[in-house]
């Protein structure tokens, strides 16, 4: 009998060491489920793919209940797998009634601490990284994931490595990652190549915080909760789609509101891609069940310049289940929407963020529409042209005012 206790004690110690280092244990509060084959696994910080079929995993939080309290993503702790953690006061972003459409609302994610929605995910992701005993985090990024991971890692005292496509990162984002003290690693090629490096090498040495990490997406689902608190459940939610994690996370958030009986009718999810980087929208238009991967995506909206979105199975399911659709907008339409949004609504968006507004203007959907504007204008100052005609000399001021 006594031996038994000793054994159990030793087992407990071994397990706690092992789990801290390699796994993680939330007791029974959540588990992982494969979105492809449905296999379930005990919660594990380090499991990103289904060992049986290679599918993506979802976090399933047991005994969720609706009890918003406090600020930031942790306001929704009762819906999350973790109850508290690292925060920079992310979330709580403005929901602005737009002047550009009848029932159009802008969810301005550029107002997050580092200027994009990525901060929601990093609050959870960096907390998990720390809990798992990691001292290093790694991300591939078109820029915003790098800026966000760098800031949250700094906050948590972790070292951050960002792998970026050389020459394809907007200036504002690069400056942020450098300022927050991340190691910058440039690869020749585009984002998809950078992600390959992280998947192949990064995960061996550091904790990966790209959106194939299901814990990060738990933070991003809080965007749905904020829309619900302010507006109820809209008819459409339009989301710019790159690696396709965000649209999946937002849909998961709404589904959970549905499960709790809070959303009676769930919104239709509309995924927007740029014409030159549209693996999902192309597949959708062709009626294909798998994406139409492209090797050389091209668009001014660098945050969605992605040819092989890793979360495609989740995103396709989100659009299908919600009875929404994928669509495309041209670079011209994106830049026009960016300008309209800035000049008529006072909302400054980077190009990718304005893709959702470009789609809203084009589609003219009926009902309540929320366009998620994913990142801030200052991220990418170089796309905004200030032509000579718009800049005057001081002597012209009076003449200008008198016009
Ligand atoms: C990351 C990002 C996207 C794309 O989000 P995914 O989850 O990769 O689909 C869109 N817009 C901005 C501004 C981003 O930073
Ligand atoms: Zn599986």
UniProtKB/TrEMBL annotation:
It catalyses: O-phospho-L-homoserine + H2O = L-threonine + phosphate. GO terms for molecular function: L-serine ammonia-lyase activity; pyridoxal phosphate binding; threonine deaminase activity; threonine synthase activity. It comes from the Archaea. GO terms for biological process: isoleucine biosynthetic process; L-serine catabolic process; L-threonine catabolic process; threonine biosynthetic process. SUPFAM superfamilies: Tryptophan synthase beta subunit-like PLP-dependent enzymes. The modification N6-(pyridoxal phosphate)lysine is found at residue 118. Belongs to the threonine synthase family. This is Threonine synthase. Residues 86-375 form the Tryptophan synthase beta chain-like PALP domain. Its cofactor is pyridoxal 5'-phosphate. Keywords: Amino-acid biosynthesis, Lyase, Pyridoxal phosphate, Threonine biosynthesis. PANTHER family: L-THREONINE DEHYDRATASE CATABOLIC TDCB, THREONINE DEHYDRATASE, MITOCHONDRIAL-RELATED. Pathway: Amino-acid biosynthesis; L-threonine biosynthesis; L-threonine from L-aspartate: step 5/5. The keyword Amino-acid biosynthesis applies. Its EC number is 4.2.3.1. InterPro entries: Ser/Thr_Dehydratase (IPR050147), Ser/Thr_deHydtase_PyrdxlP-BS (IPR000634), Thr_synthase-like (IPR004450), TrpB-like_PALP (IPR001926), TrpB-like_PALP_sf (IPR036052). It is an enzyme of class 4 (lyase).
């Amino acid at each position: 009998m006594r031996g038994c206790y000793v054994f159990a004690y030793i087992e407990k110690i071994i397990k706690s060491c092992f789990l801290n280092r390699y796994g993680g244990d939330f007791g029974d509060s959540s588990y992982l489920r494969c979105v492809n084959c449905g296999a379930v696994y005990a919660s594990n910080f380090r499991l990103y793919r289904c060992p049986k079929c290679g599918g993506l995993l979802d976090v399933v939080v047991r005994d969720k209940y609706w009890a918003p309290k406090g600020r930031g993503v942790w306001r929704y702790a009762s819906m999350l797998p973790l109850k508290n953690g690292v925060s920079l006061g992310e979330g709580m972003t403005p929901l602005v009634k737009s002047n550009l459409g009848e029932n159009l609302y802008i969810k301005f994610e550029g107002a997050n601490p580092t200027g994009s929605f990525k901060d929601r995910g990093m609050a959870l992701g960096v907390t998990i990284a720390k809990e798992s005993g990691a001292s290093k985090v790694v991300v591939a990024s078109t820029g915003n994931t790098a800026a966000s991971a760098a800031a949250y890692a700094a906050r948590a005292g972790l070292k951050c490595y960002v792998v970026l496509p050389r020459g394809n990162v907007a200036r504002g984002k690069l400056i942020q990652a450098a300022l927050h003290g991340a190691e910058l690693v440039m690869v020749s090629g585009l984002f998809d190549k950078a992600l390959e490096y992280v998947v192949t090498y990064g995960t061996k040495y550091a904790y990966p915080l790209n959106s194939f990490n299901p814990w990060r997406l738990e933070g991003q689902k809080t965007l749905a909760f904020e829309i619900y608190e302010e507006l109820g459940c809209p008819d459409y939610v339009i989301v710019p789609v790159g690696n396709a994690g965000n649209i999946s996370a937002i849909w998961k958030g709404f589904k959970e509101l549905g499960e709790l009986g809070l959303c009676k009718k769930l919104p239709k999810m509309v995924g927007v891609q740029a014409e030159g980087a549209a693996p999902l929208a192309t597949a959708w238009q062709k009626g294909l069940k798998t994406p139409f991967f492209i090797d050389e995506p091209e668009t001014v909206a660098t945050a969605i310049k992605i040819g092989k979105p890793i979360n495609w199975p989740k995103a396709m399911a989100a659009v299908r289940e919600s009875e929404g659709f994928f669509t495309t907008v041209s670079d011209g339409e994106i830049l026009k929407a960016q300008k309209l949004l800035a000049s008529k609504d006072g909302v400054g968006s980077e190009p990718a963020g304005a893709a959702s507004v470009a789609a809203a203007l084009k589609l003219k959907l009926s009902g309540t529409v929320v366009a998620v504007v994913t990142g801030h204008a200052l991220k990418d100052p170089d796309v905004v042209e200030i032509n000579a005609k718009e800049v005057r000399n001081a002597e012209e001021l009076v003449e200008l005012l008198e016009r």
